[in-house]
Amino acid sequence: MSFELKSTHWPLLALALRSADTQRLMQDWQQRYGDAAGFFDQDALLLDFSALSDSEPALADLSALLALLRAAHLQPVAYRGGSAAVRQQAAAAGLARADDALDAVQALTASAASSAIEPTPTPAPERPAVGALLIDRPLRSGQQVYARGRDLIVTAMVNPGAEVVADGHIHIYAPLRGKAIAGACGDENACIFATCLEAELLSIAGTYRTSEVPLPPEVRSKAARVRLQRHNDAERLLIEAIA
Amino acid sequence: MSKIVVVTSGKGGVGKTTTSASFAAGLALKGFKTVVIDFDVGLRNLDLIMGCERRVVYDFINVIHQEANLNQALIKDKQCEGLYVLAASQTRDKDALSQEGVERVLNDLAGMGFDYIVCDSPAGIEAGALMAMHYADEALVVTNPEVSSVRDSDRILGMLSSKTRRAIEGREAIKEHLLITRYNPNRVQEGQMLSLQDIQDILRIPLIGVIPESETVLQASNQGLPAVHMQGTEVSEAYKDVIERFLGQERPLRFVDAQKPSLLKRLFGR
């Protein structure tokens, strides 16, 4: 037999539409990602219509929206939810029906549905419930790992000049001496954990600290947790030793 | 079955060529038929260190481009039996190295019954260095006890485990050996150099040897003689230890402890 048909699972990004106003969506998209060339890397995308009204007529500019997403290096491959008209339109555009897709963003879309009258300008950062990315090999100078849309666990050392990036939390069960960037898509609740904290750079949701300012002795080379703390509207990284 | 060993470092001037020459000569002294290839196309040095620069007629690039055959290009070493040098071309650049060409030459050398093929890598992480490591079975990572050298070696180790043929084909990983050169125990003690512990803490690969900092190396290269032939010197002994460990023998580390200055030195300074 020259082939084998197997089932597989595949994490993909979901774009939850909070309004049927595709014109506005495209404007908001341009504003947020218009100049972020290279942000996406041919990631598969699910269009989630479940927050839209069940009696929605066909979307005015679906093909233009798809073209915009493709231009941003996303690959729309499936859709979920939506009125009969919208579903028919999506199927005609070549999208697969994915109503059974694992529901990591349900809570988000549900809350969006209740406030559908006032859509927020950008889709909030999402962390789908896929497993963490596990790396068992040392990361050496010049190497980079990005756990897109999930947590990152590294069981070996992260050396100076290496970079670990995750949209979720980062766990390093070895010396962390390179750069660690958690909450890369803006998740302010993301944390960085390391069993031996000697990082060159720590960043959570864009707030960072370099080793120019040495780590305090109570956490340097110790097991520690880094999180983002809001203090009088200012954000700073809080680094605590783990007992 | 011949074994391909790359001598690499990332950083320049740390002792790759010195090590390639002494390592290859040391293997030949142990009776192995060995060839050492200079991959530093355009900046050839190995032939100078090996003292055969006047005998280079055809080089590695000529063989790759099939302008000469291996028998014409291999230079027989005058010091030891069974050692051959394949010089780099001085007039070309790294683009002259084609992957297919390199593979063909390595296969031909294996067919000629060489036990060891030592590839002297150029500095950097570009085409020349990648080509030198691509087909390697084992790697000697040459590192000086200073931060920038350790960082560059770390980078090279990352490439050895991702960009080489063994890595790409998912075969057993390249066997990596850490060789520390220009080690000066007194300066380590004074905190001017990284210690063995500091280096291993970052690189975490098995240590195959430590070559002490010494004027012997400069004297040897000026004479066109691999340092391993400088009988009775610490450098020569240290390289011989490296060969023994490479061949599976146990040897205690030598020349790594600081020397107390003698009474006279303490009285009169250095």
TrEMBL record, chain B:
Binding annotation for ATP: K11, G12, G13, V14, G15, K16, T17, T18
Bilayer-crossing regions: none
Gene Ontology BP terms: division septum assembly; negative regulation of cell division
Domain (CobQ/CobB/MinD/ParA nucleotide binding) ranges: 5-226
Keywords of the record: ATP-binding, Cell cycle, Cell division, Nucleotide-binding, Septation
Function of the molecule: ATPase required for the correct placement of the division site. Cell division inhibitors MinC and MinD act in concert to form an inhibitor capable of blocking formation of the polar Z ring septums. Rapidly oscillates between the poles of the cell to destabilize FtsZ filaments that have formed before they mature into polar Z rings.
Similarity comment: Belongs to the ParA family. MinD subfamily.
The name this protein goes by in its record: Septum site-determining protein MinD
UniProt source species: Serpentinimonas maccroryi
